[in-house]
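Late entry, evening session. Most of the bench is empty. Finally got around to the prediction I had been postponing all week. Sequence below, unchanged from the version circulated by S.P.
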Amino acid sequence: MLLGLYGVSRVEEFTGIYHGKDRRNYNNLAQADYSKAVKCRFEGDAPSGDPDCDNAYVYSGDTYDFFNKGFGRDSYDNQGSPLISYVHYASEICPNAFWNGQFMTYCSTFPHDDVAGHEITHGVTEFSANLVYAYQPGALNESFSDIFGEAIDLLNSQENELDSRWLIGEGIAPAVALRDMEDPESLPWQNPATCGSRFYSCSTSDSGGVHTNSGVPNKAFVLMVDGGSFNGRTVKGIGLNKSVAIQYRTLSRYLTPYSNFTDDYEALLASCRDLTNKRIYDADPETGGAALRERIAKTDCAQVRTALDAVEMTKAVCTDTAPTAAGPLCASGQTVASLYREDHETGSAGWTASNDPALYTAQNWTVATDFVASGTHAWRINNELTSCSAVDYTSDVYLVSPSVNLAGTSRPVLRFVHDFFTESGYDGGTIEININGEWVKLAGNDFTLNGYNGEISGAPNATTLDAEAFTGYRNPGSFPNLKYSESRVDLSRYVPQDSDGTVQFRFRFGTDYCNGTEVGWYLDDVEVYECKLP
């Protein structure tokens, strides 16, 4: 459902207190430790002579002015927060640039107008729609950054756009541009221009294809601005000023964290209707700020709809790889002999959460009430969405069961109900069993129902969980609708033969250096049982 306000003017975007531009740039001195960075240029300072520092200063200012003059926004959070940039950052993630929720970081040669606009727009998105960085919400997150970053590039006079219109990051030498908004499917990018494209990604990698599938709304924006014939439809472009006004209203007034492409389709049309015959403002970062004579007309909204239809924004995509439905616990004629059962409704009940103190320890398994399979409580470990900064977020965390006695059993079964969404191939979970004081991983071929669905890629990514694991997301077509499923493990080869028969189970979750999904792994009902003949 879409909620929005009708006819809000640019002036009403202000918080009531104007703070103004406050740029603070630091030189990271070709290393990853932010604490060793030195000031290179603050607001009002003369040029430093360092091209990266000065470019980051100018382009963060252009980004501020674009949002302020066009939409009355006071910095990325609309509260006047300083625009902080670190240049000459160096680590294994380079070459790159990123926004970490507080400031921008640029590897050497990366401060360019569209790149700065892209990264700071991630901050605008965070403090408006706060689109979740996964699947279609994440692709919209990336697309809005491309849209406004390229709009700044087209409007300012800092870099020549004659030969590079609609290219993202084209100024970063010697590499090719990062994306082509006008022709996403061309080499070397091969990103989809429509939801029906063979290049549309249903993979769990790249947080569900956020940098790939952004090609669809990117192409729609190009058609809105320039028009053209595409995919059997002809669009008459409505121009850049009208298009960015509609896009900004969509982001700031209508979309919510889990909005998908269909929501964006509806929100863009609603925003166009809202702005029809209303004043819009010149967003040119250098000369803008005044109300424009041009107004959005009903006929413009018809062109917006045609552009969105041309890229098939509402087309259903991705077939779920749904878990197998759980059948009866035992075969016909057998009875269930429960050895241990826990629904997590009465506190910890002997379960203990811990982590490897040598690794990042800010997270741990906690009791959750927001998403349960039964009752009102479950366990959850958050796959934190972290930045690739100087902080190493590699983690190894454990949820350990009480002792369970398997003595006298021949084929006990572990069943548990869970769901997960992690950074595919990098973060995930496994199950281990403690026999005579030694932890052993339950192998993939021991699962009789819904076993490990992927692999952790190994060093340097969550090396503690190398090989098979629960990782990524099972149901890309229904994201963000999490749904519990049941897994079962044949424990027959793990029954202790030379002890009192007791074992423990450990649900182990590992993450790599950075990134994540903000979802993680949920665990609810757990049972150990054996099937018996009457």
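Two things to note before I forget:
The longest strand covers residues 520-532.
The longest helix spans residues 51-71.
Will write this up properly tomorrow.
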